[in-house]
Write a structure and sequence with these properties.
about 190 residues; mainly alpha
Length: about 190
């Protein structure tokens, strides 16, 4: 994936959709293993049980409505594997959208991908802690909004991510931490 992003660096796209088409091979290599995982990690069976369990009230009480909606959608489709397909799609889409935005700021997507992959372990973790991985995949996007001083988007994003998993609220610290950063290059280094 890193090599593909590196060699496609000079191809400039005016919109995310066009950039995603250019990055489609890398996107699919990132997306597919998470989507088709089978019996991987400690949470795999838990998510499958949610599909068959009619009582998701605990997640409603916790305010994690996104999970409830994903499970309901998988039930309508008729296969518990679609829980993983849906989460994988959103993890991949948010990650590649964040790469696109940072590319527009002058950062190299291949380098962000490589460092993010090596430092955070997001990809490996996404097989185990699905909801937290989805929240975590939005971290780069939240950083982008802080750098661009798009505070409403940042806090709206935090609230929406809270509907996926409550760990999202820990990212509110980013606002105060990165708000005082004098240059966009420092954001990248602090992120690491």
């Amino acid at each position: 994936i890193t090599l593909y992003l590196y060699f496609s660096l000079k191809i400039i796209a005016s919109s995310f959709l066009l950039q995603l088409m250019i990055w489609l091979p890398a996107f699919l290599v990132f997306f597919l293993p998470m989507a088709i995982q089978d019996s991987v990690g400690t949470d795999y069976e838990t998510y499958k049980l949610m599909y068959y369990d009619n009582d998701l009230s605990l997640y409603v009480i916790k305010g994690e409505f996104f999970l409830v909606e994903v499970v309901d959608l998988a039930r309508k489709i008729g296969d518990p594997q679609f829980i993983f397909v849906i989460f994988s799609f959103f993890i991949s889409l948010s990650f590649f959208y964040s790469l696109f935005l940072f590319k527009r700021l002058g950062f190299s997507p291949w380098l962000i991908f490589l460092l993010y992959f090596l430092v955070t372990g997001l990809y490996q973790t996404s097989f185990n802690v699905l909801r937290q991985s989805l929240v975590f995949s939005f971290l780069i996007l939240l950083l982008y909004w802080v750098v661009k001083k798009e505070n409403i988007k940042f806090f709206t994003g935090l609230v929406l991510l809270g509907f996926i998993h409550k760990t999202a609220y820990l990212y509110s610290i980013l606002y105060f931490l990165f708000k005082k950063i004098p240059s966009k290059k420092y954001v990248f280094y602090l992120f690491l």
